[in-house]
C-alpha cells in the first residue's frame, strides 16, 4: 500500500493521531483537544489530519482509520451512543463527513477494538485479549489472527458481567457489574484525590505502606484479575494485554494483578496450571488505539500488512 496510513484515537478530551509509513515507521504524531458535538468532532479530527499531513510535507495519505467510543457500524461508517463526545442521537455518518473534509477514505472502528489491533501489532502475537481499564471495563479479542467483534458487536463486554447480585445498579441496568469494582471510574470513587491521577495516588500510597490504600488496591486488582480469569477461561489467549488510562501505572499494576491471579488460584490446581499471571503484559507507552486505527484498511476493516512489522518499541 502506497502512502501513509493515519490513525485517530478520538476520546472525550483529546484526539491522538499518528501517521505510519508503508514500512511500519511512525512518521508523525499529534494531539489536540476534542471539540464536542457532531460538527466539533469532525472539525477537530480534520485539524489533526491536517497537522499530520503538514508534518509529512504534503505526502500522500492512503487511508484514515478512526477509533471511537460508542456503537460503531464499521461498514456504514457511522457511530451512535458516543455520549461523552456529544454524539448521543441517531447514527452519525462520521466516516463520510471526515472523508469530505480530508479527501481520504475513512474507516471507523470501536476504540477498544482499535486498541486491540494496536496491541496485536506491538506484541506481535496472533492470539491475545486486550483489557482496557478506562472509565469503564471492556475487552477486545484478537483470536487466531483476526479481530472478533461478536454477532452483535458486543464481544468482550466483560465489564457487564454481574458479580454481586446485591451490588449497586450499573449504567447498563444490571446490578453488581464487574466494572463497578474494576475500572478507572471505580478506582477513582474508591480513592478520590483532589488533584492528579487517582490510580497513581493510590498505588503510591499503597507502595508507602498505607493500609487503607493497600486494601483498595488489592480489591481493585482482585476485580481486574476476575476479568482476566473469565476471559482466559472463555478463549484461552496466548497473552492478556492491559491498557487504558489506569495502565499508565505500568509495572506496579501488572504486579498487583499477577499477585491477585496467584491468590485466586491457590485453591485450584486447574487454575494454577493455566499460569495466567505469566501471560500478562501492560502497555503504558505505545499509543495502541491510534496505532490500531492506522492499521485498519478500507477493504477488510482489519489490520492490513506492514512489511517487517511495526516500528514502535
Automatic annotation (TrEMBL):
Gene3D superfamilies: 3.30.420.40. Transmembrane segments: none annotated. Pfam families: ROK (PF00480). It comes from the Bacteria. PANTHER family: BIFUNCTIONAL UDP-N-ACETYLGLUCOSAMINE 2-EPIMERASE_N-ACETYLMANNOSAMINE KINASE, ROK (REPRESSOR, ORF, KINASE) FAMILY. Belongs to the ROK (NagC/XylR) family. This is NagC family transcriptional regulator. It comes from Nocardioides luteus.
